[in-house]
Amino acid sequence: MQIPDFNTAVLEETVLTLLNQELMRRGDQIRQRGALEQFQKEALEGLAGKGRAYWKE
């Protein structure tokens, strides 16, 4: 049984679209993780600065 070229093209387009969506989703997750890590780092640095200022008083 052979698959007509049209069905093959539709299937290929669907698979490529799904793959592209997954890659974009993973890229978004990586960016979000990086932003969260930066936010946490800045928050910890801010708290550390407040702690040092408190102990200097």
Structure overview:
The chain is an all-alpha fold. It is 91% helix and 0% strand. The protein contains one helix and no strands. The protein is rod-shaped. The chain starts with a helix and ends with a helix. The mean pLDDT is 89.
List keywords for this structure.
57 residues, 1 helix, 91% helix, 0% strand
In one word, what is the shape? Answer: rod-shaped
**Beta content:** under 5%
In whole angstroms, the N-to-C terminal distance is 84 Å
Rg over CA atoms: 25 Å
- The count of helical stretches stands at 1
Quick gist of this model?
By secondary structure, this protein is an all-alpha fold. Helices cover 91% and strands 0% of the residues.
Layout of helices and strands, plus pairs?
Layout lengths: L4 H52 L1
